[in-house]
Amino acid sequence: MNLVIQSPVPLESVHHKPLLGLARGSRLTPIDEFALRIENAEPAQRGDLDVYCGTHELDYAFVEAGRTLRDFGLVAMDMDSTLITIECIDEIADFCGLKAEVAAITEASMRGEIKDFNESLTRRVALLAGLEASALERVYEERLRLSPGAENMLAGAKAAGLKTLLVSGGFTFFTERLKTRLGLDYTRANTLEIVDGKLTGRVTGEIVNADVKARTLAETCAQIGIEPSRAIAMGDGSNDLKMMGVAGLSVAFRAKPVVREAASVAFNFVGLDGLLRLF
């Protein structure tokens, strides 16, 4: 296995010797000023690496030697707090003075403390009833920001021949705009019901929960003719776990503890383009 170490700032050479020792690897090679690769590393050393890397705000990942990004055919991403920095429903709720209440439910749901995502979403959306639909446009224009490295990651994935899927427990209002803006291939999300220019407090159609996310990834893989083992799934919350479990490589991005523990790779400090340096 190769061990890839990444830093959000230039990686100082003072880290080289201790990291090589902790990994018990055979050779250390800088990838660029932000990352290095240690060959023949021992995954059993994760505990010590966790401590060292956490202390110095470094991200590490064990990657099978010889694996390339072109070995994959799809990168599937969650939207809220993964591809973008915000939780859209929390920001929408801010326009009706309920951000704190809605955000508390969102946080509990993403941490896995509320097991029924459908109930969680239904409760939060119900609180938005009566809000002018124009608030959605304001959230998109004024508050939605891409996560660090998002555009670089997508460009690198596309250059390697991967298709892109944005699959979200959020809303089509945002996923469709991001699809156009970023040139994404596929999207799946929930549709907010709007009547007479106002939110009704309901979503229409099947709710995109953990099971639907996993199914969407599998169906998209079938559509493009690859096995799910050739998919990469990126997410941050507990409703991403099943999708990440179906994929061949899972990336926890600034994620909740339950997701970091389950994922193949965790990016706690670097941007989404850390994916490219793994290979």
Automatic annotation (TrEMBL):
The active site is at D78 (nucleophile), D80 (proton donor). Its cofactor is Mg(2+). Its EC number is 3.1.3.3. It catalyses: O-phospho-L-serine + H2O = L-serine + phosphate; O-phospho-D-serine + H2O = D-serine + phosphate. Keywords: Amino-acid biosynthesis, Hydrolase, Magnesium, Metal-binding, Serine biosynthesis. One of its GO terms (biological process) is L-serine biosynthetic process. Pathway: Amino-acid biosynthesis; L-serine biosynthesis; L-serine from 3-phospho-D-glycerate: step 3/3. The keyword Amino-acid biosynthesis applies. One of its GO terms (molecular function) is L-phosphoserine phosphatase activity. Residues 3-49 form the DUF4072 domain. It is an enzyme of class 3 (hydrolase). This is Phosphoserine phosphatase.
